[in-house]
Structure formats: structure tokens, C-alpha cells
Amino acid sequence: MNSSNELIIARKNEIIEACRQLYQIKSFREITIKDIGAVTSFTRTSIYNYFETKEEIFLAMHCREYERWCTDLDEILNARKALSANDFADALARSLEERSLLLKLMSMNHYDMEENTRPEMLIEFKRAYGRAIALVSQCLKKFFPKFTKARIDHFIYIFFPFMFGIYPYTEVTEKQRTAMHEAGIDFKYQSVYEITYKCIKSLLNLEDDNDI
To answer: Which residues contact 45 (CB under 8 A, 6 or more apart)?
Structure first.
């Protein structure tokens, strides 16, 4: 890799990191390119050399978080030759417990984000997403060799959509708690680990393929 490419990558990472820092204290709607530029070491207009829209920056951050989760999934896949259903559910749930930013980004409106992103950046994001699906599938094939393709597909097409709702069910503001109470809804809040572990165990403990 030449120095020019290294500089491009470094600057993109700096922009993404600036966005991440702001996202800890502001919402997606509140954050502007100007805000992001103020946290970087170069001018706001320079950001447009790397990202055309705010949505592209957020999608790049999302892509990075998927790649980091893929590293975790790769470790689960290769760390041991065998895992029980309990151990696999524990490992996968813990991997997401450590990825709160990924879960928060998943809860966003992807339609608008992807609509305002150039195709090449969207493709890069989809590759990271696809790799996560492939790694979870490989784990299922390795640790549950009796699972048919239909059963693995069943797991994937329930678990990945389920992930999009983890953050809203586990990270709740006081305003939301009050509204739920005033609406008379007795809702039991759970941790990321608890809600994810239970979902995985439920999917793994189907008695046979006729249950799907």
C-alpha cells in the first residue's frame, strides 16, 4: 500500500471516529458535516473528498462495526472444535453484548441512509454484512453438523432481523420508561446478553426440521 492510499484510509478513519464520538452525545439528525469537521484535524470541506453525505459516513461506520463483529465471529468459529447449544448461544450473545454501537446503528432507518450513499460504498457495506451472515452460517455448520440447510437458513432469517430490534428493547431513556408506565404497559427490560441468549437458545432447540 502506497503512502497516498494510507493517507486516504487514515483520513476516512479519522472522519468515522469523529462521527462516532459525536454519536455518543447527539442523535443522527442533530449531527452535521460541520460538526464532524470540527472534530477532525482538517477542514470541513475536505470531508467531501472522502464522503459526499453524512449518510455515507454513518454507513462507513456501520461497515466498520460489522467488520469488527466479524473478527469476533471468526474467533468463535476457530477457537474450539465443538460447542454445545448453551456455549454457542453464550458466545454469540457475548459477542453482541460488546457491540453496542453496531446494535445502535442497526436500529436506524437504513432506507434513507442507503438511498443517500454512492453505490460503491453501499456495496462495501453489503459485503461486510454478507460476511457476518456467512460466518454465523459457518458456525452453525461446524457446531451443529446435523442441521440441514433449511434449518440454518431459518436461523439466519430470524436472527439477523431480530438483531435490528435489540437496541430499542435494551437501551431505554427515562422519557420512554415514563411513557410506557403512563400507558399502563408492564414491560420487563432485559440486557443485550439476556435477550440475545434467549433468542439463540430458542432457535437452536427446535426438535427437528419439521418445526420450522
So the answer is: 37
CB distance 17 to 62 below 8 Å: no
Query: Dihedral (C-alpha) 107, 113, 117, 123: value to the nearest 10 degrees?
Result: 30
Q: What is the pTM of this model?
A: 0.90
Domain-by-domain residue ranges, the chain?
1-51, 56-211
| Integer CA distances (angstroms), 126 to 54, 72, 118, 122, in order | 18, 18, 13, 6
Query: Closest Cα to residue 31, out of 23, 40, 42, 39?
Result: 23
Q: Going by C-beta distance under 8 Å and a sequence separation of 6 or more, which residues neighbour residue 114?
A: 55, 59, 122, 125
Q: Which CATH class is domain 56-211?
A: mainly alpha
Residue with cell 437458513: 153
- The ranges of the chain with pLDDT < 70 are 1-2, 206-212
Fold of 1-51: Arc Repressor Mutant, subunit A (1.10.10)
Instruction: Please give the distance of CA 57 from its chain centroid, rounded to a whole number.
Output: 15
